[in-house]
Amino acid sequence: MSPTAAKARRPLATPPVAASPFPYNPGSLLSVQDLTLDALSHLLARATALENQDPLTRARILAKRRIALLFYESSTRTRTSFELAAKGLGADTTLVSSLSSSIEKGESLKDTGLTLRALGAEAIILRHSSSGAPWLLEAETRLPVLNAGDGMHEHPTQALLDLRTMLAHLRPGAEAITAETLSGVTVSIVGDILHSRVARSNMLLLPRLGARVLLCGPKELLPEVAAQTGPGVEIERDFEAALRQSQVVMMLRIQAERLAGLQLDLEEYKAAYQLTGQRLAAHAPKAVVLHPGPIIRGLELTAGVADGPQSAILEQIRNGVAIRMAVVERALMAEQEQGGRA
Amino acid sequence: MTALVIRGGHLVDPAAGVDLDKDILLKDGRVAEIASPGKLKQAEGAEVLDATGLTVAPGLIDMHVHLREPGQGYKETIATGTAAAAAGGFTAVAAMPNTFPVNDSPEITRWMQVPERGASIRVFPIAAATRGSKGEAINDYAALKSAGAVAVSDDGLPILKDSVMREALAAAARVGLTVIQHAEDTRITHVADKVAAMNAGPTAFKLGLRGWPNEAESGIVERDIRLVAELREARAHLHVAHISTAAALAAVRQARRNGLRVTCEVAPHHFLLTDEHVGLYDTNAKMCPPLRSAADRDALIEALLDGVVDAIATDHAPHAVHEKEVEFERAPNGIIGLETALGLCLRWLHHEWKLPLGRVLSLLSAQPAALLGLKGRGTLAVGSFADVVVFDPKAEWTYNARQGKSKSHNSPFDGWTMQGRVRWTISEGRIAYDAESA
Q1: Residue A12 confidence (pLDDT)
Q2: What is the DSSP letter of A74?
Q3: pLDDT over threshold 80, residue A340
Q4: What's the pLDDT band for A10 if we cut at 50, 70, 90?
Q5: What is the H or E stretch that residue B227 is in?
Q6: N or C: more exposed end of chain A, with fewer CB within 10 A?
Q7: DSSP secondary structure letter of residue A102
Q8: A174: burial class by Cβ within 10 Å (0-12, 13-18, 19+)?
Q9: What element of type H or E holds B49?
Q10: What pLDDT band is residue A237 in, cutting at 50, 70 and 90?
Q11: Tens of pLDDT, residues B315-355
């Protein structure tokens, strides 16, 4: 054997990564990746059907079923919209928040989940500051768990309502979702990508429908590895260049609570990344402007843009209720439809 | 003490250069005689262990374990931890000092070794390098050594300050001890109240977890090597614990070429798993240093095969079930490893990657014995301690963490296929583990 041949070692077999056991419950929505395109189509159709249904008829769908909202982080939109969605279907809801419960006394997530289950909760909607918390809760309770935002990880219902909003503008009347539904569409996500669960869920969802996702922001808030999240995801640091390519512009808030000592010059940030009326008119006069909220007027976007004709921010919020009705319905009906699961 | 004969086995003793069928007589805690099958001269009256078809080797030595005593007996005790060790074929373990209180005194060092602790094999304490492992003031190494400490380390935490690390290396060298460094630049991995939870990279980004970059390890290793070079005359010995990155390995490799006394150990989880094994927040895949990228893992395998790695050590780190059943970020670091090390090393290093059995056993015994200066261990030459493992090299079995001897079950290898089943573990002539009566 020649010295070079001896050096070129054959690739070594190494232990494989085991297949994921999640979700344990077919009603759970932990990640946007749990949904097939068929399931997505079905959810979007149900959202529309439920929205248009007579409220009294609708309220019989989950009449008196018990749903717990477990919130370890503050929330206005997501909490209220999940609550209205569940109540719209007739379910009884109860809210447990970390500041007014035994969580303050040191109760673990597992024990809080088991307690809610023992109290008769048939599904848990969880908002948590730790990435991955919904997976733990689902594994321990085996209930349908709806991820209402976990740390810096995912916020699947937000991505679904974003999708519904985009489709209404770009593909009105589209029925079924396919891998080409958003072909030719570029969506820019701008700002604090690093700490954003909304960005991650959208990055994982939109390319599956054919969209191209451009991530835009400074290095501190958008590390290079973000481009390796999956196919169809790219980085474009020049905001105006990103705008020029976009049919949809999603602005994000800087998450001061997760910065962990990171120092940012806000004036510099605004100069480079603030969405102003002038920028929008010059570079993306037809783009739909989205924002998951809460918005900080005068920081990531100006008041004029937030309230302007291209803004779909309030539509997003309205879509949230419809989407969450469909997701909550699925949580409690999935098991029945599949005839249970081992 | 009764005498024991191990008959009919195949002796593999890499330190003595033996790889032959041999019968062995153990007497008074020592190896008394080795002879060709059936040829022992002094075996009269000895109890006989039939090792036909089995491999007989020097007992394994794990230079990096956490036995949790004093202070955290709910995770593990010296008795349960050494029972797990014996079941895994180990006859000696070196216990890290991050106990409660920290083992930074001759009193605790002695306390860990008294018979009341119920150890079934030998426990060699590693004492804290600095008072309370706070990284500020170094301890009295001479006193710790005479109490039985075999090395010094602040494991779990790094010795960060240049001046303190230099002083530790110099003081340890004066009394003939090694400084074992937990190479983690906590100025990078702990920012404000946020602690890195896994390896930095695409997987951490996808999972929304804060990343522990490779430089936080390699930077400390490089700094330490500079200090060892400055202390070349003093023959300072740096040992890098649980090395996990290609960059740190490259630094160690270069230091050795430069003739410095720099050694390192690798844990089985680091050469087998990658950050992708974290899956969806499996807290049994959370340890410090974290599981790394495939490129780092491959560099570790390469370094094991080409000899840059000096020892395999498990970093056995038991945690109670309730401590690991929490949000990933909140879960404590570490996994147990004593009962899976041999099975994993034989399955992967030997069988799959073709490292000769003698080399595998040397990394698990003779080499750690040499690093810690354990005289008469890591070999079965006549006159050595009667520390022996007898195992069936061909047996395949499935690991069930809950059925193990450790008090804790936190292992990512639960359900994995292992190769090589321990039949007996003999510690200083006494049977410490017998598979048939276990």
Answers
A1: 87
A2: -
A3: no
A4: low
A5: helix B215-230
A6: C
A7: G
A8: middle
A9: strand B47-50
A10: very high
A11: 999 999 999 999 999 999 999 999 999 999 999 999 999 99
Give me the half-sphere count of Cα atoms (radius 13 Å) on the Cβ side of residue A168.
17
- The shortest C-alpha distance from B194 to chain A (Å) reads 6
| Chain B residues with beta carbon closer than 8 angstroms to that of A136 | 281, 325-328
Domains of chain B, residue spans: 4-56+385-404+414-434, 59-372
Whether pLDDT at B71 is above 80: yes
Buried b (16+ CB within 10 A) or exposed e, A98-125: beebebeeeebbbebbbbbbeeebbbbb
Categorize the per-residue pLDDT at A31 as very low, low, confident or very high, splitting at 50, 70 and 90. very high
Residue B3 CB neighbours (<10 A)? 19
Which of A9, A12, A153 faces B208 most closely, judged by CB atoms?
A153
Cα–Cα distance measured from residue A231 to residue B274, given in angstroms and rounded to the nearest whole number: 22
C-alpha span between A153 and B388 (Å, rounded):
50
φ/ψ of residue B273, rounded to 5:
-115, 160
For domain A32-154+320-333, which architecture applies?
3-Layer(aba) Sandwich (3.40)
B4-56+385-404+414-434 carries CATH number 2.30.40.10: yes
Judge whether A151 is closer than 8 Å to chain B, CB to CB: yes
* Helix, strand, coil share (%) of chain A residues, nearest 5: 45, 15, 40
Structure tokens at B425: 């573990």
For residue A245, pLDDT over 60 is answered with yes
Amino acid identity for residue B115 in this structure: P
Q: What angle do CA B394, B399, B400 make, to 5 degrees?
A: 150
State which residue of chain B sits closest to A196, comparing Cα positions: B208
| Cβ–Cβ contact B301 with A under 8 A | yes
User: What kind and span of H or E run contains B366?
Assistant: helix B366-372
Class of domain A156-256+263-317: alpha beta
Chain B residue numbers touching A126 (CB-CB < 8 A) = none
How far, in Å, CA of A194 to CA of A190, rounded? Answer: 11
Across A7-27, average pLDDT: 86
Residue A198, pLDDT above cutoff 60: yes
Name B245's Cβ contacts closer than 8 Å, sequence gap at least 6: B214, B217, B218, B289, B292, B296, B299
Residue A24 pLDDT exceeds 60: yes
Look up residue B346 and give its amino acid.
L
Q: Which residue has the tokens 């990155």?
A: B245
Q: Which CATH class is domain B59-372?
A: alpha beta
Q: What value does the mean pLDDT take over residues A94-110? A: 88
Residues of A in contact with B206 (CB under 8 A): 200, 229
The confidence band for A338, taking pLDDT boundaries of 50, 70 and 90, is: low
**B348: which DSSP letter?**
I
| Interface predicted TM-score (ipTM) of this complex, two decimals | 0.94
pLDDT in the model for residue A30: 98
The domains of chain A are located at 32-154+320-333, 156-256+263-317
- Cα separation of B122 and B357, whole Å? 24
Task: Tally the residues of chain B.
Answer: 438
First and final CA of chain A: distance in angstroms?
55
Contact B281 A135 (CB under 8 A): yes
What gap in Å lies between CA B298 and CA B174, rounded to an integer?
Answer: 37
> pTM for this structure?
0.95
Residue B430 has pLDDT above 50, yes or no: yes
Is A4's pLDDT higher than 70? no
pLDDT confidence tier of residue A101, bands split at 50, 70 and 90: confident
Mean confidence (pLDDT) of chain B: 97
Please confirm whether the linkage preceding B125 is cis (ω < 30° from 0): no
Distances (CA, A) of B4 to A162, B31, B142, B427, B430: 75, 10, 37, 12, 9
Strands (E), B223-318: 238-240, 262-266, 311-312
